[in-house]
Design a protein that fits this description.
335 residues, alpha/beta, Helix Hairpins, Rossmann fold, Alpha-Beta Plaits, 3 domains, four-stranded antiparallel sheet, 13 helices
Length: 335
């Protein structure tokens, strides 16, 4: 039995002894419940105070039994509490409570399922980009590693609806299934899609046939680390300069320019503006527009009009992109 369960059982047993003692004095001696409870407490704690009322022979026998049972119960609870503190269970419990509180505060965050090699790298990137996220994994060793890294995490099976809810799936921005097992990725995708039909889900696939299953399960994006790694190696061999430029812009530390993906809502102030008008307002360049019908406009003309549902691929400084995002978030009625 773990220390927490032992502590709860000890407290429960001691409470039963106290209640039974008070009831016993009421029945045997005919005292009021307060007097009986007081007598029970001073008897169990052996503080040496005088008896509340003179005891009958039956009352004395009952007191002897109460002392034996009560003191034993109290000593057991004290030993368990000492063990609980020494073993660090109290600190772990308090830390877990803080963890749960912080997770409950998350909004528009990502849920990262799996904290293996791929998951840890994703977590590092999220942390560098200051993106809120929470990790789910059922491996205790992985759980300990996430705790050591100071990452918000939930210990449990990500295919379980309750575990996903504990990670705040109702408020999440997206879910990333980074398991090495395709079976786990499929089940997590099915569970998440059932809870949040509108949630963005990205899943890792190891085998080619898993991509089809993940797509049917509801994954929006399916990533194969092996094929992406192979493609990247080929691109580095063929076009090293281009790859270096993209790496610098997308993930280089201390970079001056950044690339951002901005989705235009129906009530956004950007709706109806041309690419040129948008550029004049924010100074950020629009590299491409992914239209709501799936059409991709690379290097769009300055006359192209931005519409609801468009996803803008933009390039600019942090300040320029922040300005563009603020304009995008601004409702047309608030202009």
């Amino acid at each position: 039995m773990n220390p927490t369960r032992r502590l709860l059982w000890g407290i429960f047993a001691l409470a039963i002894i106290i209640i039974a003692g008070a009831i016993g004095y009421v029945i045997i001696e005919g005292w009021t419940f307060i007097d009986a409870l007081y007598m029970t407490i001073i008897t169990i704690t052996t503080v040496g105070y005088a008896e509340v009322h003179p005891l009958t022979t039956a009352g004395r026998v009952f007191s002897i039994l109460l002392i034996i049972g009560g003191v034993s119960g109290a000593l057991y609870v004290l030993s368990v509490i000492a063990s609980y503190i020494i073993e660090g269970q109290l600190g772990i419990t308090l830390g877990r409570r803080r963890m749960e509180t912080n997770i409950a505060k998350l909004k528009e965050h990502f849920i990262l399922c799996g904290y293996g090699n791929v998951g840890q790298e994703i977590a590092r990137i999220f942390a560098d980009e200051k993106i809120p996220f929470v990790v789910i994994d059922k491996d205790q060793e992985v759980f300990t590693a996430a705790d050591k890294d100071g990452i918000l995490h939930v210990l449990g099976d990500a295919t379980n609806d309750e575990v996903l809810k504990e990670a705040g799936i109702e408020r999440a921005r997206g879910l990333v299934a980074a398991f090495g097992s395709d079976t786990n990725s499929v089940y997590v995708t099915l569970s998440a899609r059932g809870l949040r039909p509108d949630l963005f889900i990205e899943a890792r696939a190891s085998a080619p046939d898993a991509e089809i299953k993940l797509k049917k399960a509801g994954a929006d994006r399916i990533i194969s680390p092996y094929s992406i790694g192979a493609r990247r190696m080929a691109e580095l061999a063929l076009r090293p300069g281009i790859v270096d430029f993209i790496d610098t812009v997308v993930s280089g530390r201390g970079r001056e320019f950044e690339i951002e993906n901005i989705t235009v809502r129906a009530d956004s102030a950007l709706v109806g503006l041309t690419v040129e008008e948008t550029r004049n307002l924010s100074k950020a360049a629009i590299l491409a527009i992914n239209k709501s019908n799936g059409r991709l406009l690379a290097n769009p003309s300055v006359e192209v009009i931005i519409e609801s549902g468009d996803r803008l691929i933009t390039l600019g400084t942090k300040k320029q992109l922040t300005t563009l995002e603020e304009i995008c978030e601004r409702c047309q009625t608030n202009e």
